[in-house]
Design a protein that fits this description.
By secondary structure, the chain is of the alpha/beta class. The chain has 5 helices and 8 strands. The mean pLDDT is about 95.
Length: about 210
Amino acid sequence: MKLLITGFEPFGNESINPAYEAVKLLSDTIGNVHLVKLEIPTEFMRAGMVLKDAIDQFHPDVVVCIGQAGGRSAITPEKVAINLMDARIPDNAGYQPFDKPIREDGETAYFSSLPVKAMVQAIRDAKIPSFLSYSAGTYVCNCLMYELLYLIDHFYPTIKGGFIHVPYMTEQAVDKPNGMPFMDLKTIVHGLEKAIEAIAEHEEDIQIHLGETH
């Protein structure tokens, strides 16, 4: 199995991004999964294009995109991406869309085609906090996840794909308000390894309840 895994460059006021820092530390081979690693620009207009070029170049079986979710305390596979760009801050190109669709011809939302519940369970089994997320936000992370699933729906029906958010890494929390969640980078890497193992093991997702009550 060939898996293309991406991580974003730093954005906002951050000098590092745990997403790509973790991706870089992953082994090139995990079990029978061979990884291709790629850094993605934190830009609404370029992220999807860079991803499509990589898919066309490497022909992966699976694509997993990783992003930073500052304020979350766990590794959170995403269930759904919505067709909306609404940016609280400009992206790295200075673009700040307001209530704009990502794709005029796209569905309102696309669901991940990864076994997200199995991924959560595998990460938890490794004693690492993990939850299933039902919102990838409205910034570039959601945009990239949506673009990936749009591309799969329209052009690459045999590929499976989805997105995982990771917390701030320890170094980023030093200048954050007291109580800001963070996770050691090695723990993030280990959690992503377990998620990848679950992807390889589960053709279909497991049937457990991970829904929210609010």
